[in-house]
Amino acid sequence: MTRALAVALLVAGAAHAASTADPALTEVMRNLAAVPTARARFTETREVALLKAPLVLTGTLRYERPDRLEKHVLTPYDERVAIAGTEITVENKARGRSQRFSASSNASLLALVESLRATLAGDLPALERYFDVAFEGGARDWAVVLVPRGAETLALIARIRIAGAGDRLRRIDIDEAGGDQSRMSIEDETR
Amino acid sequence: MTRSDRAAVSIWLATLLAGAAWLAMHLVVTTDLSAFLPMAATRSQALLAQQLREGASSRLVLIGVDGADAATLARISGDLARKLRADDAFAIVANGDPALMSADRARVETWRYAMSPGVTADRFTAAGLRDALTLDLELLASPLGAAIKGTLAADPTGELRRLALTFLGQGAPPTTNGVWFAPDGTRALLVAQTKAPGFDAEAQARAVSAVRAAFAAVAPADARLRISGPGSFAAEARHVIAGDARRASIVTSIAVLALLFSAYRSAWPTALSALPALTGMVIGVVAVAALLGPVHAITLAFGAMLIGEAVDYPTYLFANAAPGEPLRETMARIAPTFRLAVLTTAMGALAMLLSSFRGLAQLGVFTMAGVVTAGLVTRFVLPALTPARALERKAARLPFDAIRLVGTARRYKWTLAILLVAACAVIAAHREAPWDDDLANLNPATEAAKALDRELRAQLQAPDVRYALVIRDADRETVLRSSERVDAMLQDAVSRAWLTGFDLPSRYLPSRDVQAARRAALPPPDALAARLATATEGLPFRDGLFAPFLADVERARHAPALDREAFRGTALGLKLDALLFESDGEWIAVAPLVGVRAPADIAQQMRAAGAGVHWLDLKDETGALVAGYREQSLRSIAIGAAAIAVLLGVGLRSVALAARALAPVAIAVVMTVATLLAFGERLTIFHLVAMLLVVGVGLNYALFFNRPRRDDDEGRLTLLAVFLAFAAALIAAMTLAVSVTPVLRAIGLTTALGTVFAFAASAMLSRDR
Q: Is residue B40's pLDDT more than 90?
């Protein structure tokens, strides 16, 4: 009886320890939260089952605390996606197309936007609302692995891995549920 | 009882019982307000009226759910939609959930090359294909590439995407958590279409209850349900009118009987007073049902008025009975005046009878039949049925010195001149717009209900109820071709913000010509394969990816023409049936319009659309009909008035006497109109109707006030009779005046004012001896 109790307490203790955030993760989040704006160039490689060669996109990323993001694809076509809060504007000058819609109409889209925004803003509670968060590495060289909680999002995205160094992002890797992948490397960040 | 008495009573009893039995078996009561709408003059108006009564828009139930957070509301929306779909009363239930439209999606996917306006020869050249594929790549690169992955292999040119945009683009609410929400996100929206037509108030009421029951089963306590739509208005109207009818009849009956009892001080004459009115009502309803079909509840409520009026007749008989005088002699004494009174009231109803408004014709038949019956029963049956001593305790005079009062009143008859001038001034001041031709004001729904309807309609982007476009022709293909022409014109109108959206049958069922052109634009398989190979050069699509596309295009090239059959059993099929149908040997396309902001501009544009395309503004159309009808009524009234005047002249054997009887009534009418206008009440056709009644009843007062009398005692008896009659009529009128139903309110208010003015004026203008 007492042995069972001891085991139970031990397991409970372990679980408790795991649920408290890793101090390194907390430090990383704090460092990220301190960043007011950021600019970077990215190279994204998308592997799509339908295509025999990966799509390569390059462009710039911009961030403004706490919830403004902009992804401007420069090659192979010009398209700017600007996110302010939950409002998304997609502008494609070549096609003369400009669309505005709300991310709140699509749970998966919202989760995707939050995965990046919440990380950049160091907003761990927001991340945990949409994802199961696992932490790898330490404060100087880290990665968060996000697995969606919502069934709708899980059906589309299997996991997102965001890696960084200090208070800058280095990589965003997205594994889609159907097997397609997106690998983005981020470089030359300026403040 | 003499032989003739017995005969009279037997005939009366037999008729009454036969009538009651017939009613018990055959009576159908309706609360459909359209019975009070004029018969359509033109085909388009008839069509519009038909659409209003039973068209798709008349079957919509608009549903909103608020009072909880978005996630809960979305869940409630899903559960509610599922429950309602299982209910047989509903043909379609939509809440924005795409999963529920899978049958429709499949159909559109199969027929996309016939339906999509993007299918042109240019699209399928190598350059066109390359454009499409480049766009596809961009879409794949975006985070939401998942949307296009499923259809890319079969539909690289994106016809499905374009069609989805068109069908949704004509206006659907934004979606959150997969279901429709109001733009501010606080209310989930659903729309259901009942199988029963809009005019079936009974079925609509059941549908509304079904929605409430389903909601109660799936929603937590604090969530709130909002329902609106033509069906719910009809159900509500039914409830309101029935309530008013019941209340008016009960209150009037009790109050009037109490009044009479206080004068007769005996149960027998009081009870007997009800007989002419009851018989009149039964025969009146039988007459309406036999001649005009289902009886409207408003007609029955009007019966409350008849009670007050028909009680006049036994009152004139009983009240005029001198102490100890047999009723037979009383009747003989007052017969000439009595006969004239009944006939002039019946004449007053003649104008209504001749109208082409079904509802008014009903009121006319009801009044005439009821009044004449009541008169006959009073004349022949009551004297036979009343026991000799029943009137022993009856009052012989009013509890105050009425003769002196009338004398005093006569001295002030000059005030009538002043009031008359004032009244004429008021009428002149309002002469620009005294009439209210807007039938929407007939709707007894509260302002809050109407506001909710407008709100839900705007949020759901449901079509306008006021404007519609109708295309008519004997040939279906001509209608579809016109529809396609109109499509282009309306798209132009949308780009100019004249309206926000529209729908047309040609979007679902293109004309044969257009389908043939599209089929011709699809290249044969080897040509297509070659062009595709050129287009994909340098693009990273997997080899052989587009095999399904090649197969689908080839199938579409040889497919039969798309027809309505293809949509059987889907929501699109139901929509198409509502937009394109056959009626009376012609094909009709109805184009619902959403958010119309510049009706005059669109109407102008549609004039160039060719014959067969009709722009309809319901409010204008019915307004014009009502105005036209009003002209007709005023003419009939003039004829009725002339007939009454002649009748009076002949009956009284003197033009001077006839004038003396008509003058107070004329004055009463002018003053009633002036009072109504002064208090901001604009006149409808129903005020007009009530005025006729005032003329009939007012004449009774004038006739009895001026009746030759032998001595003061007889004078007091007459005054007692007139006063009781007036009090009873006033009670009936005031009961109606507090109704919620606008029609009944109008009639009650007018009659109340009219009887007061007529009574006063008759007293003031009566002759001395």
A: no
Q: Is the peptide bond before B399 cis (omega within 30 degrees of 0)?
A: no
For chain A, the residues whose C-beta falls within 8 A of a C-beta of chain B are: 46, 48-55, 57, 73, 77, 79, 81, 90, 92, 95, 101-102, 104-107, 109, 112, 156, 176, 178, 180
Q: How many CB atoms lie within 10 A of CB A8?
A: 10
Peptide bond into A66 cis (omega under 30): yes
Q: Do B541 and A57 touch (CB under 8 A)?
A: no
- CA B748, B754, B760: angle at the middle one, nearest 5? 140
Comparing C-alpha atoms, which of B269, B291, B294 is closest to residue B393?
A: B269
Q: Using CB atoms, which residue from A52, A79, A105 is nearest to B138?
A: A79
Segment B343-367 shows an average pLDDT of 78
- Contact state of B185 with A53 under an 8 Å Cβ cutoff: no
Q: Long-range contact list for B534-539, CB < 8 A, 24+ apart?
A: B534/B126, B534/B129, B534/B130, B535/B126, B535/B127, B535/B129, B535/B130, B535/B133, B536/B133, B539/B130, B539/B133, B539/B134, B539/B137
pLDDT value of residue B99: 67
Q: Would you place residue B34 in the very low, low, confident or very high pLDDT band (cuts 50, 70, 90)? A: low
Cα B511 to Cα B491: distance, rounded to the nearest angstrom: 18
**B215 pLDDT exceeds 90?**
yes
| Per-residue pLDDT reduced to its tens digit, A164-176 | 988 888 999 999 8
Residues B229-257 as b/e (b if ≥16 CB within 10 A, e otherwise) read bbbbbbbbbbebbbebbebbbebbbebbb
User: H or E element: which one contains B152?
Assistant: helix B146-152
* Residue B551 pLDDT > 90: yes
Place of tokens 């002249």: B649
* The pLDDT value given to residue A21: 66
As a whole number, mean pLDDT of residues B725-744 equals 86
**Which of A49, A90, A105 lies at the smallest CB-CB distance from B174?**
A105
pLDDT for position A6: 47
Q: Rounded CA gap, B437 and B455, in Å?
A: 25
Report field, pTM of the whole predicted structure over 0.90: no
Query: Residue A17: is its pLDDT beyond 50?
Result: no
Q: Hey, which residues 160-199 in chain B have their CB within 8 Å of chain A? A: 174-178, 185
pLDDT at B129: 93
Among candidates B141, B144, B545 on the partner chain, residue whose Cβ is nearest the Cβ of A46:
B141
> Would you call B146 and A53 a contact, using CB atoms and an 8 Å cutoff?
no
The SS3 of residue B483 is helix
Would you call A105 and B152 a contact, using CB atoms and an 8 Å cutoff? no
pLDDT tens sequence across B380-398: 888 888 877 777 777 777 8
The one-letter amino acid at A29:
M
B138, B175, B176: residue with CB nearest A77 = B138
CB contact under 8 A, B543 and A156: no
B residues 555..614 contacting A (CB < 8 A): none
Residues 6+ positions from B44 with CB-CB distance below 8 Å: B470, B472, B614, B616, B621
- pLDDT at residue B554 is higher than 50: yes
Arithmetic mean of pLDDT over chain B:
84
The structure tokens 């019941």 sit at B246
Q: Is B20 left (phi over 0), alpha (psi -120 to 50) or beta?
A: alpha
ipTM: 0.77
Q: What's the confidence (pLDDT) of residue B37?
A: 59
